[in-house]
């Protein structure tokens, strides 16, 4: 019994020692951290493309409130400001006139261009319409009156002689023109028909002659005489056809020119003996005759083309003048509010010089100012953000990253990027360039 009492405490003591030893070893392993094998497994299983751990700290950057749509406006041309039609803070609509330069010179140029275009268009329309009946009748009446005066002077000066000389000149000129033009189509057709008839008659005469040529007295027969006559007619028709085909000879042209020169000399000789009034009357008749012919002929295609080109040139000049006039005005490119106005009437401005700032103050966005290159790599388009405002304590608005400018800027030695954030909610107290603080969670989308 004593032995049992002695061994039982020893057994429990040994068991307690083993438990304490195991707990000690386990505690040392936990305190020492993972083994090298465990670390290697963790490193090998890590995904290099996995998003950052949610435990990473949020990014807080400074930002400013700006309108979603804004524009700095300037005149395209230089000049003196004549009108300031808006004030700072005024709401305007797209196309509304904001400022105007002195445009007296440009308006004059537009008026001149409009008048030139009207003249060119009227001339083109008149040419296209052709001569009016009353115009033709008036020209004919003037020609008849001039011709009557000429006839009276001729009768008083040298009755019959000048008229006969002029008639001879007209006949000589008509003959020269006929020689130069050659035979007409009708003449050629008639000559060809005459040759064909002569050839047919010759074949008939030859056939009749062939039927009696075996007779000894064939030369005395009428068939022989008929063949001879048909042959002569055929040769004459053929010669005439060939002559017409070849056209006039140089001798024929020279002879016709000589006739014209001789007739013209006779007319000039008779006119030299007439009074100056007769020469003036003849010139007047020629002038009215030429004008009437031009009027009745109507415009040529070349004249129409020139008139149309004048209309096009005048239209282009007017468009150019209107563009120059438009450059003296400044109009709103979109609906918005005049945020800044830096000009007064009477001041001189240069083309391209900023004079007015316009913005749509109904929609705001936030742009970061100090987002570093180390922070921007963890930001994604579409990421949600929270925005607070220094001037509006307690106001917190949700937003979303809509774009990140791909080029950074040097800010006192640091490269910073601009993230543009759309406000998902707004507040009427927001103003342009208010400072804000943006809280972003890296890697979220």
From TrEMBL:
InterPro entries found in the cross-reference section: UPF0194_transport
Localisation: Cell envelope
Coiled-coil ranges (or none): 103-215, 253-298
Protein keywords: Coiled coil
One cellular component term from this protein's GO annotations in UniProt: cell envelope
Official protein name in the record: HlyD family efflux transporter periplasmic adaptor subunit
Taxonomic placement: Bacteria, Bacillati, Chloroflexota, Caldilineae, Caldilineales
């Amino acid at each position: 019994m004593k032995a049992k009492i002695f061994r039982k405490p020893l057994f429990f003591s040994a068991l307690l020692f083993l438990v304490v030893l195991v707990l000690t070893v386990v505690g040392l392993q936990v305190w020492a951290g993972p083994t090298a094998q465990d670390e290697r497994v963790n490193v090998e299983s890590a995904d290099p493309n996995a998003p950052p751990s949610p435990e990473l700290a949020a990014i807080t950057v400074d930002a400013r409130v700006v309108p979603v749509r804004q524009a700095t406006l300037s005149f395209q041309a230089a000049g003196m400001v004549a009108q300031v039609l808006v004030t700072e803070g005024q709401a305007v609509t797209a196309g509304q006139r904001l400022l105007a330069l002195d445009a007296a010179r440009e308006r004059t140029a537009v008026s001149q261009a409009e008048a030139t275009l009207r003249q060119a268009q009227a001339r083109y329309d008149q040419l296209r319409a052709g001569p009016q009946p009353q115009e033709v009748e008036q020209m004919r009446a003037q020609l008849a009156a001039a011709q009557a005066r000429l006839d009276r002077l001729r009768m008083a000066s040298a009755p019959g002689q000048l008229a006969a000389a002029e008639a001879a000149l007209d006949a000589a000129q008509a003959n020269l023109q006929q020689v130069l033009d050659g035979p007409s189509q009708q003449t050629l057709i008639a000559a060809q028909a005459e040759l064909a008839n002569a050839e047919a008659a010759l074949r008939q005469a030859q056939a009749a002659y062939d039927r009696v040529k075996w007779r000894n007295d064939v030369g005395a027969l009428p068939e022989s005489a008929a063949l001879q006559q048909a042959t002569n007619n055929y040769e004459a028709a053929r010669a005439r056809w060939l002559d017409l085909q070849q056209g006039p000879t140089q001798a024929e042209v020279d002879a016709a020119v000589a006739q014209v020169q001789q007739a013209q000399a006779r007319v000039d000789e008779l006119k030299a003996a007439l009074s100056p009034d007769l020469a003036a009357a003849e010139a007047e008749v020629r002038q009215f005759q030429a004008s009437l012919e031009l009027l009745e002929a109507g415009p040529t295609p070349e004249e129409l083309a020139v008139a149309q080109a004048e209309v096009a040139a005048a239209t282009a000049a007017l468009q150019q003048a209107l563009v120059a006039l438009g450059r003296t005005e400044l109009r709103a490119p979109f609906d918005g509010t005049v945020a800044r106005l830096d000009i007064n009437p009477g001041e001189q401005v240069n083309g391209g010089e900023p004079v007015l700032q316009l913005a749509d103050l109904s929609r705001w966005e936030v742009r970061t100012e100090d987002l570093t290159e180390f922070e921007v790599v963890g930001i994604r388009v579409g990421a949600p953000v929270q925005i607070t405002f220094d001037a509006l304590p307690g106001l917190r608005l949700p937003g979303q990253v809509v774009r990140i400018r791909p080029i950074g800027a040097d800010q006192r030695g640091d490269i910073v990027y601009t993230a543009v954030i759309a406000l998902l909610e707004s507040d009427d107290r927001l103003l342009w360039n208010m400072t804000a603080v943006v809280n972003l969670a890296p890697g979220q989308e």
